[in-house]
Amino acid sequence: MNNTPHVPGAQVGDLIYADVNNDGQITAADQERSKYGNIPQITYGLNLTAAYKNFDLSVLFAGQAEVSQYVLPESGVIGNFYSSWANNAWSPSNPNGSYPKVSDRASSAVSGGLYNSTFWLNDASFLRLKNVQLGYTLSAQMLSRLHIKGLRIFVSGFNLLTFTKVKDYDPEGTNGSGQFGGAQYGSGQFYPQQKIINLGANIKF
Predict the structure, then answer these.
(1) Is the CB of residue 15 less than 8 Å from the CB of residue 111?
(2) Which residues contact 184 (CB under 8 A, 6 or more apart)?
C-alpha cells in the first residue's frame, strides 16, 4: 500500500483512488466531474396498441438514458449492508473481494462518504415495461342473454419488467441527500416502483 498513492487514513481493503494528475498523492486536484447527473438527458416512451376481433391490447414502454445515480448504502452501525456488498466485501479471508471492506458507518468511511468515489456511481439508464393491458369485449349476442349493454373484461400489469445495469435499487428512484460531481447521491433509501397486476371488468347497463 505504501507504493500506491492513497488518501489519509486508508487501510488495506479500502477503495484505491486514482491519482488523476500523477503528482504522487490523492488530493482535491484529482476530483473530476461526472459526465451525467441524476436528471436524465433523455427520457422516452413507446405506446403500442393492437386489436383482433374482440381482443384489444395496449403496451407502454418507458425509459431514460444518459443519467447517473450515486448510491452509497447507509450501512454499518446505522443500517444494513446490501447483500451484494456484505457477501463480496474484502476481508483477510477474502482478499479478492469485489467490494471494499465493511466499516462502522459507510457514509463517513474512507471508501464511502468521506471521499466520494465513482465506484458508487451507477449508470441509471433503463427500459421498463410500464403498463400492459389485455382486454376482451363480449359480443352483443352473448350480452343479450345477460341483459346488459356492454361488458369488457381485462387484465393489466404495471412495472412487470425492467432492463437496466443497476442491481441493488430502482434506477428510477432519487435521493436528496447530496451531490457528487453533478450527480445525486445517497443511501438508496427510496421506495421502489411496485409491480402490480389487476383484474377488472367494465360493464354498461
Answers:
(1) yes
(2) 37, 38, 69, 70, 174, 175, 176, 178
CB 110 within 8 A of CB 72: no
C-alpha distance from residue 104 to each of 72, 101, 109, 113 (Å): 14, 10, 8, 12
What tens digit of pLDDT does each residue of 43-83 get?
Answer: 999 999 999 999 999 999 999 999 998 888 778 888 888 88
For residue 122, the cross-strand partners are 69
State the pTM of this model.
Answer: 0.81
**What does the block give as the cell for 85?**
456488498
Residue 101 · residue 93 · CB < 8 Å: no
Contacts of 189 by beta carbon, 8 Å cutoff, 6+ apart: 74, 175
